[in-house]
Each structure stands twice: as structure tokens, then as C-alpha cells.
Specification:
The structure holds 2 protein chains of 2 kinds. By secondary structure, chain A is of the alpha+beta class. Chain A has one helix spanning 2-27, and strands at residues 62-67, 70-75. A two-stranded antiparallel ribbon of chain A has the order 1-2. In chain B, 33% of the residues lie in helices and 32% in strands. Chain B has helices at residues 3-27, 86-99, 156-174, and strands at 48-50, 54-55, 62-69, 75-82, 103-109, 114-122, 128-137, 140-149. In chain B, strands 1, 2, 3, 4, 5, 6, 7 and 8 form an 8-stranded antiparallel beta sheet that branches. Classes of the chains: A alpha+beta, B alpha+beta.
Chain lengths: 76, 176
């Protein structure tokens, strides 16, 4: 009988602690979701050397040409 | 066996020895062109075409290769010398550095091999951009020249990258 009581008590302690953890986690404040401005104009970054969005995936400020590394994106 | 026959045998043995010696000498691995890195390892893989190697540039054991860009306006000249010891390698490099004709020189240290130095500037007539990378690795010394359009000097990151590839090749080939 004593063993049964001790077993139930131990189970209760474990269950209680787990429940507490869940509660604690649920109580953690979540990171605020960044809000997007409504009706804002699209953000436009610099264009490539030819005034387009870039050839061969070159980003702004770069363009595609045959240079020291062969065909690659090079700064304007 | 008279003296004339003995003399003939001596000549025959001497001749055979000379032939054997010449054969061994020809088999000596004094072709250092395998130490030259191909710049296409740091390009789109086919931008440069290699010229024939020049052996023992400047009278020192080693090799030089000139790589020409397909646009015809850029060249990379890679030289590796293999000397008797690190001190001789440093000496050879200092000599090569002192004779390099580069105008408007800017000298910076480069993280390549031992004592890596990068000199950027122009050709003596100012019509070309010129960058020279010098370094030693053990008893080997390396000088890599990048010559191109005056308004389009070689990017420093390409120089360093190629120098590090050259350094790695020397280490792997010579165990420096």
C-alpha cells in the first residue's frame, strides 16, 4: 500500500512539473511580428550599369562582362 | 693485350659511360613547368590560354608561363624558381623585385606563402595596369605578373586567390 502511495505521489510530481513547463512556455511572450506599412511604394534599389535589373543574375552595381575572371559579374 | 687494344677498350668504356651519363642527365626532373598554376582555376575555366613554358628564367632553376586572356588585352605571367634553400629563394625574389619596372608603385603585404608582397601600378609607359605578387614557399620563390588595361587593373582578391593556389601547388609538388 505504501509503495502504491509513493508511486502515485511521484507520478503526480512529474505530471505537475510537466504541466508547469507547458504553462510557463505558454506564458512566454512571443516575438512581435514586424508590421509592413500599408500602401507604401515598392522599395527600389540601384539599377545595374545599363539601367536594367541586371543580366545573368548580377545584382545592382554589377554587370556581366568578360574580365579578369572571364565571364562574370563585375562592378560598374 | 697490347697497349693499343687496351686503349681501344678504354675509349669504348669511356664512350659508353658518356652515353649512359647523358641518358641519366636527360631523365633528371629539371622541368619545373608542372609547378606553374593555371589561372583558369580561378576564372570561368577557359579565359586564359597558356603559352609554351620557358625553363630556368633569369638563369635560375625554375619555369615561366605566360597566360593570355581570350580578349588579348590581359596577360598573367607566372614564374616559379626552385633554389637550394629558403635564403636563396628570398634572394632570388629580391633580385626579381628590384628589376621590376612598375610605375606609381603601391606596395602592400599579401597573405600568400612567406613574405607575400603585392605591388600594384602601371607599366613604365603608363599604358597598362601592372600588379606583381611575390612570395616564397620553402626553397621556392614565385612571381606572378598581371598586366591589363590601364583602366581595369586586376582585382586584388583575384591576385591573392591565384597566389594561394600557386602556393598550394608548390607545397604539394615540392613538399615545401
Amino acid at each position: 500500500m505504501r509503495r502504491i502511495v509513493m508511486g502515485l505521489a511521484a507520478a503526480g510530481v512529474i505530471a505537475g512539473s510537466l504541466t508547469g513547463v507547458q504553462t510557463a512556455n505558454a506564458a512566454q511572450p512571443s516575438m512581435p511580428t514586424p508590421s509592413m506599412p500599408h500602401n507604401s511604394p515598392p522599395i527600389i534599389t540601384a539599377l545595374d550599369c545599363y539601367g536594367t535589373t541586371g543580366d545573368h543574375g548580377c545584382g545592382p552595381g554589377f554587370f556581366w562582362r568578360d574580365g579578369w575572371r572571364g565571364w562574370a559579374c563585375y562592378p560598374c | 693485350m697490347n697497349s693499343r687494344r687496351l686503349g681501344g677498350l678504354t675509349v669504348a668504356f669511356f664512350s659508353a659511360g658518356l652515353t649512359l651519363g647523358a641518358g641519366l642527365a636527360a631523365a633528371q626532373p629539371d622541368d619545373y613547368s608542372a609547378l606553374i598554376i593555371d589561372p583558369n582555376v580561378v576564372t570561368d575555366s577557359q579565359a586564359y590560354t597558356a603559352g609554351p613554358p620557358t625553363m630556368n628564367p633569369g638563369g635560375q632553376p625554375g619555369a615561366t608561363k605566360v597566360f593570355t586572356h581570350r580578349d588579348g588585352g590581359r596577360t598573367i605571367t607566372d614564374t616559379v624558381w626552385v633554389l637550394s634553400d629558403p635564403a636563396a629563394a628570398s634572394s632570388a625574389l629580391n633580385q626579381a623585385q628590384s628589376t621590376a619596372a612598375i610605375g606609381n608603385q603601391k606596395l602592400t603585404s599579401a597573405a600568400v606563402g612567406s613574405g607575400g608582397q603585392l605591388i600594384t601600378g602601371t607599366s613604365s609607359d603608363g599604358t597598362q595596369s601592372v600588379s606583381m605578387l611575390y612570395f616564397t614557399e620553402g626553397n621556392a620563390a614565385s612571381a606572378i605578373e598581371f598586366a591589363g588595361p590601364a583602366g581595369d587593373p586586376v582585382p586584388s582578391d583575384l591576385v591573392i586567390e591565384m597566389g594561394q593556389k600557386q602556393d598550394a601547388l608548390i607545397k604539394s609538388q615540392l613538399g615545401a
